[in-house]
Design a protein that fits this description.
The protein is of the alpha/beta class and 298 residues long. The chain has 11 helices and 14 strands. This is Vitamin B12 ABC transporter, B12-binding component BtuF.
Length: 298
């Protein structure tokens, strides 16, 4: 082959193949930032329990080399090396794991920690799904980043189908004024942008503090009494119904108390932005339906 043709052939090769190499993987995260990888991530560090769970749902569980305390679902997650808690990350331990991708919780991880990790030139995906539909999209994006789209896409589609079923069954039912209690002292609830508000809406509920802009807001007992919810829902810390949920029984003027509508949902099913959130949603929808059934006949 004449040597004079090599420059032209090289140019053709560069135009044909280099864009694919340079493009790599590109995903826009929940902060609006673009995460770029040359190839699917092989060593992932997850900075929150719900992110670890979602990575497993996306087919990327075997690629997680480090995660935080309380990452115990699925069972395989409990065997992953710990790098502290989501709010107290051991940055040296993270660096020692040599991750090629970090999945972080935008509203839960300290900004200072994330800045220090960025200084190590580690790509960071920021997660903040505030609506139920966001969960499916996140599963798909994590699948792209981990090269497990075949699994992730199926999981996302399953989530969407189940969500659509709940919307069809409960979305047009008469509204139920609902107070969701995160904790007793301080008395905490969820505002408009928190994903639990979206779950309440899915079930035909009306969050009595749904106009608050903060995701987790402190309120007073007097404010709850004034709001007069028809249902009070709490989760607590574990699988056990919190004793403080029944403390509301002293306030007999509250409609939820008068009708016995004090309900419990395990926190792992309602307070984590994962596919299991639909299990919590289904329980909440059933509780609100019970409350509708306790209304006096007209």
């Amino acid at each position: 082959m004449p040597c004079a043709r090599w420059p032209q052939l090289l140019a053709v090769w560069l135009l044909t193949f280099c864009p694919l190499v340079q493009a790599g993987i590109s995903v826009v995260d929940d902060s609006g930032g673009t995460v770029r990888l040359a190839q699917p991530a092989k060593r992932i560090v997850s900075l929150a329990p719900h992110l670890t769970e979602t990575l497993f749902a996306a087919g990327a569980g075997e690629r997680i080399v480090g995660t935080v305390d309380y990452s115990e679902y699925p069972v395989a997650a409990s065997k992953i090396a710990r790098i502290g808690g989501y709010s107290r990350i051991d940055l040296e331990r993270v660096a020692a794991l040599r991750p090629d991708l970090i999945i972080a919780w935008q509203s839960g991880n300290a900004a200072a920690h994330l800045d220090r990790l960025r200084a190590l030139a580690i790509p960071i995906y920021l997660s903040q799904p505030n609506r139920l539909t966001d969960v499916a999209g996140e599963i798909e994006r994590l699948g792209v980043l981990a090269g497990s789209s075949a699994v992730a896409d199926r999981a996302a589609e399953s989530f969407r189908q189940r969500l659509a079923g709940l919307q069809k069954r409960y979305g047009s039912l008469p509204p139920v004024r609902t107070f969701y209690q995160i904790w007793k002292q301080p008395l905490m609830t969820v505002g408009r942008r928190q994903i639990i508000s979206d779950v309440i809406k899915l079930c035909g509920g009306d969050n009595v503090f749904g106009k608050l802009e903060t995701m987790a807001a402190s309120v007073t007992v007097e404010a709850v009494i004034a709001a007069n919810p028809e249902v009070i829902v709490a989760s607590g810390m574990d699988e056990a119904r919190p004793e403080w949920l029944d403390d509301w029984n002293r306030w007999t003027s509250i409609l939820a108390v008068a009708r016995g509508n004090l309900f419990f949902i395990p926190p792992d099913l309602i307070q984590r932005h994962t596919p299991r959130l639909l299990e919590g949603a289904e329980r909440l929808c059933q509780h609100l339906e019970s409350a509708r059934g306790r209304r006096p006949a007209k």
